[in-house]
Task: inverse folding
């Protein structure tokens, strides 16, 4: 074990030195990050407190904790999916692993190191936000600080760790099975399975149905079997975590303790399984990944003239042509890139289809306003995720090979704005799809008045421009040309900061449109005339805010390209 | 022609390159020598447009690298010390990519690519993605890419690193041929025999300052002051 701690010590040292170096730029970035993370921590606290205070008295303790359980499910799945994708790069593609394999360090120790590295790297922001949200929740239910801390350490961290364990088990199984049946078949199978899960998730829990459903519940109407129902379902980690909160809030500490023990036991068991599987299969599966690469990279396949080939003539100017083709091949030859995009697009598509068929019936102003805004914000959140995952790393992904472009006779703005254009196309199409489809139920409900549809499309354009500009600009500012893994770039500190700024922007948009939207629904439901001039000011504010933020981010990003390389 | 006029580069309070001036006329092979951390790569990166000089001027074929970067870079080829390539492109695709960046006609690129593939003997694996290339293979593709657009100024940082003897010979012959054709060559190297064999003139840099600048003849005369060995001269100048 001494080797393990020796490596761990130097990894920590390296992290500390990289995070707290004495350069001015790093200090400014650090202070900026601290302010933004601090703001978000406070916002997570306030939001959690406000939601709990608003929703819990309306729906009762049991229903409220069912909603909490669903939220945890989303959190659990997010961490799980994130770990499957990120850990492929960390466990199998990292040069550090190759280096450590040449040293007298056991495979199990390397596996644990990289597993922990992956978990802590991809979940650290979650920890902060989850803890602050827990504080907000706990404030409402008058939790002592030590209760919050205990819940964080003994319930939430094990839950997220459990999720990461399952993620890495799925990944290793995937690599193992892929060696039998072929990588593409297995990946396609997994993608289909994921589509089914997402479709089922939306079928049973789309936000409007949940909101309308919750409005019909009355406190105390459910059987007191915890917050997540009985039977096998109560063993789901999200239900256990939600049950702990439920029992603490219900002043039943013994039941809360037993649920906590169950969570710890499950996590310990799963980690033991992970250790066993890691010990037996990590090195073998690591070798398999080389076989996949060798099989897919042959002279024969390279000689074949493809649809979008460098050798083919093009009508585009030569510089633009080669840049576009380079982006295309770099993207579609990297499995983690196209696979992740495909999964996200499927998610967007399923969401759009699911929402289109929604039957919005309740003619209650507040419910429809909140419902509309939930869909609006969720659509924005999808665009936000797409931009963060694919646009933010686009400059970093040039890597050290960026010398080819920076030393060539090409204008920097051509390079920069091409990336902007690609980002806009990538994000705008799904954004328009969700904007149109999520407005269909409301247009139907409002006797086919198209105002909300026009607003949705108008907003989709501005939101796309702003989110892409923010991610490209700040992605350039925080560019890390050393990192080859786009997922790690998209989950870096700079990326998290950008994501948080994007969320602030989305919340600002929601707050800009909330009043005119409420007035609109009110005029419809109460058969009053609607003064169209009401929408001019928010529409203009939305455009100005978006344009201002986009311009700022683009200037920052463009200037960052002019720095020494 | 390559011209550096009082070029200085500072990183905060540290001066990496201190007031360097030199001219490499067309057809001259210039060797840039110095110990590790002397400022060779920083100078070269400024010439390639990757670093902005703190003060001074760099001209490539008469064009200022900072004020007229597009014109200056059009005549220049740069080969970095580490041959970074796009992993997911094949060697051939990378060569097309570079040709396109220099606005070359597709047919001209194809013709030139066939030439460099044959010249550098890379045909056997040029259609594989570069992610599986060895250091030497990458280096050969990078140098081949630098020749695609037929530059007037050639800046090359440590060209022999990672090359096997056969490839190193090809590169040496290529550089000599380019100089004969009128290309200004600026080469940074640690290899003293290479500098002695190839260069018309050499410059020694130490702590960012040019401590020796002279022709091969003056260098030969100068080194007789020591024990007649290039290595001893190098050690003395960079002491």
Result:
């Amino acid at each position: 074990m001494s080797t393990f701690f020796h490596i761990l010590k130097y990894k920590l040292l390296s992290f500390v030195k990289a995070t707290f170096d004495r350069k001015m730029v790093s200090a400014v970035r650090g202070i900026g990050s601290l302010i933004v993370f601090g703001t978000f921590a406070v916002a997570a606290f306030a939001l959690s407190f406000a939601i709990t205070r608003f929703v819990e008295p309306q729906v009762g303790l049991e229903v409220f904790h069912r909603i909490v359980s669903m939220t945890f499910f989303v959190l659990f799945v997010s961490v799980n999916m994130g770990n499957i994708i990120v850990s492929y790069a960390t466990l199998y593609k990292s040069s550090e692993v190759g280096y450590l394999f040449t040293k007298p360090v056991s495979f199990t120790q390397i596996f644990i190191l990289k597993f922990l590295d992956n978990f802590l790297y991809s979940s650290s922001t979650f920890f902060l936000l989850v803890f602050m949200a827990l504080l907000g929740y706990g404030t409402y239910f008058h939790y002592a600080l030590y209760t919050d801390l205990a819940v964080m350490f003994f319930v939430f961290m094990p839950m997220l760790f459990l999720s990461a364990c399952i993620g890495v088990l799925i990944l290793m199984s995937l690599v193992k099975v892929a060696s039998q049946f072929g990588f593409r078949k297995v990946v396609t199978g997994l993608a289909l399975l994921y589509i089914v899960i997402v479709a089922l998730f939306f079928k049973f829990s789309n936000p409007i149905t949940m909101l309308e459903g919750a409005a019909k519940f009355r406190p105390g109407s459910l059987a007191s079997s915890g917050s997540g129902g009985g039977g096998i379902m109560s063993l789901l980690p999200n239900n256990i975590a939600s049950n702990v909160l439920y029992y603490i809030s219900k002043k039943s500490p013994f039941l809360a303790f037993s649920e906590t023990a169950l969570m710890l036991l499950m996590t310990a068991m799963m980690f033991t399984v992970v250790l066993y599987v890691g010990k037996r299969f990590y090195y073998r599966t690591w070798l398999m990944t080389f076989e996949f690469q060798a099989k897919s990279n042959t002279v024969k396949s390279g000689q074949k003239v493809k649809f979008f080939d460098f050798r083919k003539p093009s009508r585009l100017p030569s510089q633009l042509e080669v840049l576009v083709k380079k982006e295309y091949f770099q993207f579609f030859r990297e499995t983690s890139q196209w696979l992740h995009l495909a999964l996200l697009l499927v998610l967007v598509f399923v969401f759009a289809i699911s929402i289109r068929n929604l039957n919005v019936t309740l003619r209650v102003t507040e419910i429809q306003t909140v419902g509309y805004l939930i869909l609006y914000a969720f659509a924005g959140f999808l665009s936000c995720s797409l931009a963060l995952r694919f646009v933010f790393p686009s400059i970093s992904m040039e890597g050290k090979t960026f010398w080819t472009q920076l030393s060539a006779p090409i204008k920097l703005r051509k390079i920069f704005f091409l990336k902007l254009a690609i980002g806009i196309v990538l994000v705008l199409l799904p954004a328009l799809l969700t904007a149109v489809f999520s407005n269909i139920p409301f247009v139907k409900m409002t006797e086919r008045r198209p105002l909300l549809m026009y607003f949705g499309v108008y907003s989709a354009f501005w939101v796309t421009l702003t989110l892409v500009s923010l991610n490209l600009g700040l992605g350039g500012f925080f560019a890390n040309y050393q990192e080859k893994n786009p997922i790690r770039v998209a989950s870096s500190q700079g990326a998290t900061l950008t994501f948080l700024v994007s969320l602030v922007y989305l919340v600002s948009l929601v707050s800009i449109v909330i009043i005119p939207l409420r007035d609109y629904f009110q005029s419809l439901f109460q058969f009053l005339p609607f003064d169209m001039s009401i929408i001019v000011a928010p529409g203009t504010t939305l455009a100005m805010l978006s344009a201002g933020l986009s311009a700022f981010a683009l200037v920052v990003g463009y200037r960052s390209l002019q720095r020494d390389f | 022609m390559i011209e550096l006029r009082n070029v200085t580069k500072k990183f905060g309070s540290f001066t990496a390159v201190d007031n360097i001036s030199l001219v490499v006329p067309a057809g001259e092979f210039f060797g840039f020598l110095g110990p590790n951390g002397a400022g060779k790569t920083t100078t070269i990166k400024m010439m390639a447009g990757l670093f902005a000089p703190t003060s001074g001027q760099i001209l490539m074929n008469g064009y200022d690298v900072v004020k007229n970067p597009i014109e200056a870079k059009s005549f220049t080829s740069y080969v970095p010390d580490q041959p970074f390539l796009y992993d997911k492109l094949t060697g051939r695709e990378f060569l097309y990519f570079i040709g396109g960046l220099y606005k070359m006609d597709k047919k001209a690129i194809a013709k030139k690519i066939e030439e460099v593939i044959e010249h550098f003997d890379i045909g056997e694996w040029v259609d594989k993605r570069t992610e599986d290339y060895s250091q030497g293979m990458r280096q050969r593709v990078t140098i081949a890419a630098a020749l695609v657009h037929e530059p007037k100024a050639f800046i090359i940082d440590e060209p022999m690193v990672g090359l096997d003897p056969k490839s190193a010979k090809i590169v040496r012959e290529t550089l000599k041929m380019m100089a004969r054709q009128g290309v200004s060559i600026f080469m940074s190297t640690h290899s003293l025999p290479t500098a002695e064999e190839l260069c018309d003139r050499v410059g020694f840099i130490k702590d960012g300052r040019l401590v020796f600048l002279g022709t091969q003849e003056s260098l030969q005369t100068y080194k007789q002051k020591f024990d007649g060995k290039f290595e001893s001269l190098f050690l003395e100048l960079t002491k």
Remarks:
- Residues 46-290 of chain A form one domain.
- The two ends of chain A are 41 Å apart (CA to CA).
